[in-house]
Amino acid sequence: MKSSICLVLLFCLFSSPSFVAGTATDDLNALHTSVNDATSGDVTNREAAKAVAEGNIASQLVAIQTAESEVVTAREDYLVAEADYLSKLDIYDASVIARDDKQAEFDGLDATYQAALAQKDGSDETEDYVCTGTVTVAAEDYVDHPCWSQHLRDLRTAQYNTEIAHIDSVLAELDAGDPLEEYTEASQARNELLSLKAELNAKIAYLTLMGSIQTQYVADLQAPRDVAEGELTALTTDRDTKQGAMTAAKSVMDGKAATVDTKAAALKTALDTLTSLQQSYASAYATDTTELDSVRDAIQALLTDVGSSSVTAKSALHLQQGGYAEIPAVNLRKDFTMEVWINFDPTRNDQHNLPVISQAKTPFSDESKFVFQLKLNGGPAQSNGDTGYSYFYWSFVMGSPDSPGYAVKLTGNAMQVYGWTHVGISVKTESDGRIFGRMFVNGELQATNQLSGGRWSSRLPIVLGKLATDRNTFFSDCIFDEFRVLSEAVTDAGVIATHMRTALSPEATNVRINIRFDDDHDAPASLPTALSTRLMDSSLNRLDGKFFTPSGLENVAATFVPSVVYDAPETTARVSTYALQLDSKAASQNYLALPSMDLTGAFTLEMWLKHKDGSTSAYYPRVSQAVRDGASREHFVFTLEMEDGSAGGSCKYTYKMGNCASVGMLADGLCKNVVEIESDEFTCTGWHHVAVMVTDSDVAKIFVDGTCSDEGSEPLPTGTCVKRLDSDEA
Fold first, then answer.
1. Strand runs labelled E in 430-517
2. Can you point out the beta strands (E) in 272-329?
3. Is residue 162 within a helix (H) or strand (E), and if so which, with residue range?
4. For residue 156, is pLDDT > 90?
5. Whole-model pTM above 0.85?
6. pLDDT tens per residue across span 62-74
7. Phi/psi of residue 133, each to 5°?
8. Helices 183-306 and 25-120: crossing angle, nearest 10°?
């Protein structure tokens, strides 16, 4: 019995999906004709009105940006004025403190000075003071002396002078009398009067000296008091000047504050106007949606009649060259699951065309202010000068108002992407209050991370095919299908794997959005534009989306293509994780050696192969098995080689089997071919699946990407993809 062998090199299996049409074209066309007859003019008018409303909203967004800029400028001006006012207020406060300190100093000096004057000018005569004693040089010794008062001193001096005058008159009378008469008594009296007069003159001298001391004391007190008074006057003037500057600065600050209030009020008015415009737009949009409900219900009923098993994913949306789609916003601040199928061909894309779905918080906001972004990213280039990527990975980010600006980041595994990929994102609040985000790729859980902050919300649409935060410089080149958002978080990979192959019921209450891209876009050409660009939401919410194309590219930038996302067997791998790259040059020959296989019976040899773009035919892929180590090129069991095709940029694979063995070789040392077959020609670049089959009936076939033009024919001569083995040489 002959055995079957399957050799897989550079393992990267894709299915060869078949597309199941299964559509009721006549019924759908009749339905669209009915819709066109009933609603074409009304829908077209509404579409024009919506275009005007969209223009008004765009203009209002520009006005809001201008108002926001003016508010920012006004706040900056206010902060400058406030800083100037506070600086002048500090200077004024310091001048007030300096003046108050000087006032206190002056008050002390003035009080002492005024007390000295009061004592000097005092007129207390309630007691008969005796102004006698020893005079010293210290004025403070006399501050409390009864004769410190000038008034009392004047009274005493006048009294003493009166007494001296009386004494002088008595002495004159004594001198005029008989010198011999009562000599003894007169002499004694004269001596006593002279002694009294001397005593009185001493008292007058004492009082005069005390007056001089007091005058100097008062003068000594007045000098610093007058200096302090002058300084107080200067500080008062300085304080008043600082107060004027402070008052002027406060006036400027108050004016700036008023400007801020005015600009803020204008911004609020602009925002209110935008809200009003958006509400009017949403109302008009809802009206259109309501009027189209009967259309979608009829279409849905028709699809149900046709059968969900055959009409599962009829079409998908291909966006390229600036085309993008918008879907109304939903609340992603609660638990949710987001799923989408994306078809991406890395051979015709660069870093500016990778698939992306995102939602911004505000128009053109930076990356920390978007609601979310799901994007395919490329790894480093394979070598210097290579513009491609050596691998790809999916990333998902949710922005946050909290530091560091991201609520969660999820990064998938490195992989090779070619064809359809299913990506699922879920965010769930656990029983302990923690919130986790999860990423599923093709039904496999690839990343889990805890959210570290709050999440943004936004009324702006979800954008497919363009960075929502970008100013029209990043657009995808890929195909989208089956975009859906659920109001519950799916955390089980098995459930995601089931979801990715199941069409959701239109009556499901947990579905927020379900854009299937299955509208009949092959309807009559007279279908209104409002319907031809609409992306119908099959959920109960009726959140229809819409796609947009640059002028002149209406039939290129956004097109509907057949979709096969549900048709492949569940066991088929869509995307590989890694591939082996061999980069051989003349001085460095790299190769992969596998154990030998018995190819004498029936077998299938298959593999995915890709050659480096721009390499010459000398470095085209080659797989072979030699008779023995060191054998010449002709001594082989088989060879499979890529060769140039008949036209530029085309290639083909040639498969040869020899009859050489370790013994029994021909005398000339050459082997004879048992069979030589060539594949159909294909584009040289990119990944290609190559399969060689030898059947039990000794028929050899070669397929590239599942195609052999001679399949089903009788074995033909050499040079075709089907040939019977040469029995004479076998």
1. 435-441, 444-450, 462-464, 478-486, 511-515
2. 315-319, 324-327
3. helix 150-176
4. no
5. no
6. 888 898 899 999 9
7. 140, -175
8. 180
